Known about the structure:
Blueprint: E1 22-26, E2 37-43, E3 47-48, H1 53-59, H2 62-70, E4 79-83, E5 92-97, H3 104-117, E6 123-127, H4 133-146, E7 165-169, H5 176-200, H6 208-225, E8 233-238, H7 240-246, H8 249-255, E9 263-269, E10 277-288, H9 308-323, E11 328-338, E12 350-352, E13 358-360, H10 368-381, E14 386-391, H11 395-401, E15 406-410, H12 412-425, E16 429-431, H13 438-442, E17 450-451, H14 460-469, E18 477-481, E19 487-488, E20 499-500, H15 505-516
Parallel strand pairs: 1-7, 2-5, 2-6, 6-7, 10-11, 10-14, 13-17, 14-18, 15-16
Antiparallel strand pairs: 2-3, 4-5, 8-9, 9-11, 12-13, 15-18, 19-20
Amino acid sequence: MGPTSLLARCAPNDGYPAAVTTxxxxxxxxxKTRAEAVVVGVVPGPALAPGAEDVAxxxxxxxxxxxxxxxxxxxxxxxAKVPSKDVIGSPLLVLVGLGADPTPAAVRRAAxxxxxxxxxxxxxxxxLPADTPELAxxxxxxxxxxxxxxxxxxxxxxxxxxxxxxxxxxxxxRRKEVVAAVEEAQVIADAVIGVRDWVNTPPAHLTPPTxxxxxxxxxxxxxxxxxxxxxxxxxxxxDEEELAALGCGGTLAVGGGSAAPPRIVELRYxxxxxxxxxxxxxxxxxxxxxxxxxxxxxxMTSMKEDMAGAAGVVQAVLTAARxxxxxxxxxxxxxxxxxxxxxxxxxxxVVTIYGGTTVEIANTDAEGRLVLADCLVRxxxxxxDVVVDIATLTGHMVLALGEKLAGVLGDDATxxxxxxxxxxxxxxxxxxxxxxxxxxxxxxxxIADLSQHDWIRWGGGLFAAAFLRxxxxxxxxxxxxxxxxxxxxxxxxxxxxAGATGYGVTTLVEFLRARSAGVVxxxxxxxxxxxxxxxx
Length: 536
């Protein structure tokens, strides 16, 4: 596909939302483009960032005065729109702050902010730093994600403000690796948008059975779009009767209080040239009331987000197939709705996890670890090289790290690998320990093998990870607690819009990409299973 006709659509007809914007990659001058708006970056100084040299030359000595008048300093998040008055070919110049270091993450955020700032323009040209594959991909990802809206439940959705054409201007537009990176960025953006759509969907419209149907349909659509001979994604759905026959007591207990029965969905992607085998596990609580340990009312309004881990796992597998990554992936997502009724499980109950481990229940609002436990045992049975689970698991992790960072726990080598993937993806995460004394806490039950929860206020996120580790069969393993960054309760910023962020799917894809290339970082110093901040 030529660089001037790159991806004539936002997303292929494979189950992802159709879009009206066409995308192109060109090496044209940003000062001469006839697009209705041209977006350039600003760095502290202030000065225009790389990619906008022709625009700076067109304004000449007037540029510094213009930036001063507009009080543009290059600070990240700044936006200013200026009629060009024929100084350049485009009638509108859009200035967006990049900060001192125009990294891919900075470009992604700036492009996202620009997508919301430019409205009612039929064509937009991005002249942000884009002379490497990473920068070019970040610009496309950022613009698509920053312009994301979810209007499925509006009675009269507003017309899209997206341009009919977006052109990425890059001096490297004809380099094959840049073209390939931008095409892959479209696939990544599709995956993030897919996660956002699922997480933003009201919980009554995405119950466990419905979500299982959505996953099956999405996989079917991706398989249909893949070329002849390409490895397909296999999907199997275990209903409540099959779960009972298997003895998946954690999932059944959590879902027992809902009129919508639980499911476990298993996906397998097995390319012939696979370089290794990764198991992914995702928490899919489609709504979490807390069960009998009921949440405060104000804490329930966004609890549709509790299936974000499962959504990320599914989209990561579909993306691996679309990109043709040579790595085998086995994925397991546990779907349940944690509700209150006469059939709800109770504090004091003992449930038997798939495989036979018994667990004493202390808090029905610590439900995710029970669903994950069933799935982790099944994942271990697949005999992968490594297991990674992802879940909106604990409020403790939000207290520890805030709403922007995920916590990563597990053995040191796998934690380092996940952190490297997160850095490549532009998703912030921080390593957390699993201290040895947590062993005593998780084995504190006097009547069962494990305690699910102990009501000690401190270290709950670490307790949860220690609990999950019991079901990994000693395999290399990492756990991502994404309770903080998965849902943006504030206003849009950069490429993140209000509501679901899609956090985690890009990290998982980068993890799979590294594994498919045989790239496995060396272990950091420290004892296995007791990750320290040195891993960052």
